[in-house]
């Protein structure tokens, strides 16, 4: 079972930036994919950024050009740099990993963007 621990959430003004960190319990190379999802109140959880095993990345349209996902293979860590934050980015952000096509989630970290 893959364990994921997020950190870095908090309160920021609109237009500001935050950097989220996800520490995985095993090597990223063993995963099919790793990334970030979010869930706003009353909405379904959605994947916003992901790194596939080959290194390619994909982003939700709502965050393209503002969010950047990256990884540190040596530390088994994935980051989400979030710039130009908007009130609609308010959500709990969860780290997500897929291994052997089973999806795992962390406990989440709250991101609050004030207008």
| Assembly category | single chain
From the N-terminal CA to the C-terminal CA, the straight-line distance is 39 Å
The SSE order reads EEEEEEEEEEE
Number of helices: 0
Helix proportion: under 10%
Mean pLDDT, all residues: 96
Number of strands: 11
Low-pLDDT stretches are none
Largest sheet features:
7 strands, mixed
Shape descriptor: globular
Strand content: over 45%
Report the C-alpha radius of gyration, rounded: 13 Å
Structural class: mainly beta
Describe it for me?
Strands 2, 4, 5, 6, 9, 10 and 11 form a 7-stranded mixed beta sheet that branches. Helix content is 0%, strand content 55%. The termini are far apart. The mean pLDDT is 96. A hairpin with a 2-residue loop joins strand 9 (91-99) and strand 10. With 115 residues, the protein is mostly beta strands. It is built from no helices and 11 strands.
Which helices and strands, and how do they pair?
Elements: E1 4-7, E2 10-13, E3 18-24, E4 33-39, E5 46-52, E6 57-59, E7 67-72, E8 77-82, E9 91-99, E10 102-105, E11 109-114
Parallel strand pairs: 2-11
Antiparallel strand pairs: 1-3, 3-8, 4-5, 4-9, 5-6, 7-8, 9-10, 9-11
Keywords:
globular, 115 residues, 7-stranded mixed β-sheet, mainly beta
In short:
This protein has strands at 4-7, 10-13, 18-24, 33-39, 46-52, 57-59, 67-72, 77-82, 91-99, 102-105, 109-114.
